[in-house]
Design a protein that fits this description.
Blueprint (H helix, E strand, L loop, with lengths): L14 H34 L8 H15 L8 H22 L12 H4 L1 H5 L2 H21 L9 H33 L9 H14 L6 E9 L2 H8 L1 H18 L5 E6 L2 E7 L3 H16 L12 E9 L5 H17 L5 E3 L13
Helix pairs in contact: 1-2, 1-3, 2-3, 3-6, 6-7, 9-10, 10-11
């Protein structure tokens, strides 16, 4: 199976779900690692004043190592959501073991189990939140049950307070995340097609240009638009034209990888950003998109639709969006001039002044 085909999983049944996991993990990685290290230092200070030794730090060392290993090349993983879930689980297990070793129900870090719970709504759908919350409560219960607190095992108030803290944190995080997603969706999503819009493209360009000096991977760009779209609107009506655009968005989504992003930049023009893709792999993907559009007629009226594609790529260190877009757009113009329904790279790669990656 080609690596650009999206494969749904239980955690991420749609491509946008997987893209969200990758985006949020990228945003939370540094903070999460820092928080885990901070908690480990706090546990170290607590154990230094007790007789239990340094064993509570072992699970944190394992969890930090897991964060590093699981976070590598996340955007190249076929199922990155499982890596993110595994890293999250490591942090919860590390806390649970430390609770068990520092007094169980009387552990000073008992309520810290709520810390990793904050990340659940940021990364996963409600199914993932429910499972993660259940795992957190189960591990907290096991830590209290096995911990040597020197207190009665039926200390319900302390244990119940910790459970309430975890549940309250998850519930508040869900509400806040839903509100944030709603407002971000309104600002960055094209209401007709559900694709990302020009504002979202501007944000992503700023991100990529800011990271250019730190990255060594290539980056490719595909510019596409519908052949004779005006004729579809004139002959079939704008309702039919809108339906064609929505169907194109669906067909694009079935061909793209989770970490690729397609943007509707106006009318029938779309831009696809392909992090890590060479010029050759971008050409292959563009041809897959072309074939997906031509595979079946569109709608009840069986409208035959074709699209033209212009492709170019560069090294990330030399990424300047305006230059890369100009060369891909020129290739699109040549595809149109050739009769449409085709894919074109720039025929002479060194003409546009952008360092190409074959």
């Amino acid at each position: 199976m080609p690596d650009h085909i999206f494969t749904p999983t239980w955690l991420c049944p749609t491509a946008p779900d997987r893209a969200r996991v990758i985006d949020m993990e990228r945003r939370l990685r540094a903070v999460g690692t820092g928080v885990l290290a901070l908690v480990a230092v706090a546990v170290m200070l607590l154990t230094a004043r007790s007789q239990i030794g340094w064993w509570p730090l072992v699970p944190f060392a394992v969890a930090l190592g897991g964060f590093v290993v699981l976070g590598r090349r996340l955007d190249r993983s076929a199922r990155p959501e499982y890596r993110v879930a595994a890293a999250w689980l490591l942090s919860v297990v590390a806390l649970a073991v430390s609770i068990a070793l520092t007094g169980g129900v009387l552990s000073p870090v008992l309520t810290w189990m709520a810390i990793p719970a904050v990340a659940l709504p940021a990364c996963f759908r409600m199914r993932g939140v429910w499972v993660g919350g259940t795992v957190t409560v189960a591990l907290l219960t096991a830590a209290v049950a096995t911990g040597d607190s020197g207190a009665p095992r039926d200390d319900v108030l302390t244990f119940g307070g910790a459970i309430v803290t975890v549940v309250a944190v998850v519930a508040m995080s869900v509400a806040l995340m839903r509100s944030d997603l709603h407002h971000r969706t309104e600002a960055l999503i094209d209401p007709l097609t559900g694709l990302l819009n020009r504002a979202a493209l501007g944000r992503r360009i700023a991100e990529l240009e800011g990271q250019a000096s730190a990255r060594s991977q290539p980056l490719a760009l595909i510019v596409a638009d519908v052949d004779d779209f005006k004729a579809i609107n004139d002959e079939r009506g704008h309702v039919a034209g809108d339906a064609v655009l929505r169907e194109i968005a669906d067909r694009f989504g079935s061909e793209l990888r989770a970490y690729d992003a397609v943007y509707r930049t106006g009318g029938d023009e779309m831009v696809v950003l392909l992090p890590g893709a060479t010029r050759a792999s971008a050409l292959e993907l563009a041809d897959s998109l072309r074939r997906a559009i031509e595979l079946d007629p569109f709608g009840e009226d069986a409208i035959d639709v074709t699209m033209s594609f212009g492709v170019d790529a560069c090294s990330s260190e030399r990424f300047v969006y305006d230059e890369l877009f100009a060369s891909a757009d020129r290739a699109l113009y040549e595809a149109k001039a050739a009769g449409g329904g085709t894919v074109r790279p720039l025929p002479e790669p060194d003409q546009a002044g952008v360092e190409r990656v074959a």
